[in-house]
Predict the structure.
Amino acid sequence: MDKLRFEITEELEDERIDKCLSALIDSLSRSFIQKMIRDGAVSVNGQSVKGSYRVKAEDWVEFCLPTAVEPDIVPEDIPLDILYEDEDVIVINKPKGMVVHPAAGHYSKTLVNALLYHCGESLSGINGVLRPGIVHRIDMDTTGSVIACKNDMAHNCIAEQLREHSIVRRYQAICHGVLKEEQGTIDRPVGRHPAERKKMAVNEKNGKPAVTHYRVLERFEKYTYIECVLETGRTHQIRVHLSSIGHPLLGDELYGSRNFPFRLQGQTLHAKILGFRHPSTNAYVEVDAPLPEYFAHLLQIMGSGIRSVSQI
């Protein structure tokens, strides 16, 4: 069991203990911290406290963090839309609603569960038992190309290409509003939202450099169909960047509006083109993931001018 120890500063004085710890340990949820307080894992100046305790400047807070036990990840026979596969890598066209790797609340039906069944033990082990073969991820409700590696050599090679931004990643999306420019670049740092822990934001103070290039593919009455090219790969980058210029993605209720006339499951964002240098041959490989049916159907409806919710 790990023990964390903090001295309370004047800035946090009079905060409730659970809120104080949530600010100090941004990797843990408030509900988890509250449970640990109830379980007696939190003490102030050597004395166990209750959740109603308000901290004072120069208090010493100790938090006993239980040792994480990684669950066994079970292979599952889940059909995969394989776009490319050889002895080193496999590229999957991920469907909407599928989580890439197991995490709290999602230990089954993930892409990793499916890859373990399909590939057996032929997945790189660099990222541990929860993320075998995984070098990058896309959001649960984003569709399209995800590459996984079957050995550590391939993993290191693809990871290095991600670090040096040489992998080609072209997304297609539909955003709210009509973009006036034919193309543009959003160069704004992205980091954790200062107040909402589940969100990212343009964060000039604590964000990391993030660059998204976009160009218009087609304009509709109230929406724009665009291509986005990632120069960097921050969490929720496209979603945050488009929202920051007043054109959030259609269906993105986290960063945009819930006011749209279509029944959608999350943001209309598709990782269409993935290009990389092959780990063994150094040849350039480019994979094109076809648009999912719902996305193509939506474009057809927008182009025809039909506004009925029942069409999606």
Remarks:
- The chain is about 20% helix and 25% strand.
- Residues 306-312 have pLDDT under 50 and may be disordered.
- The first helix runs from residue 17 to 24.
